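Handover notes (outgoing to incoming on-call)

Open items:
1. OSBP2 protein: sequence verified, structure written out, both below. Nothing else pending on this one.
2. Nothing else urgent.
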Amino acid sequence: AENMYFFSELALTLNEPEERVAPTDSRLRPDQRLMESGRWDEANVEKQRLEEKQRAVRRRREAEAVEALEEGKDYEGYIPLWFERKVDAMTGELICVYKGGYWEAKDKQDWSVCPDIF
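OSBP2 protein structure tokens:
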């Protein structure tokens, strides 16, 4: 346990790679894989690259929203692939509810709808 930062066995195995998952699965993060291999400097460079890529996507979406507003058009923005936000009838809180599609895509190994996030 001391060598594993006192994490439980469950905590240590949560990030284990799994075959046939979506290319957006967080276990496929290249910076994380480098870190787990002890390649700290490379992991840090990769993490910075990924964060800048995410910022660029956010800036592009924000620019598209401004452009749509200026043109008087509706702009939907980002729509998650497999979840949708709904108000919980019991609590009134906003929750994310699975809307389907992931397991079918996994069975077919058709990840064509997944964005390139890494």
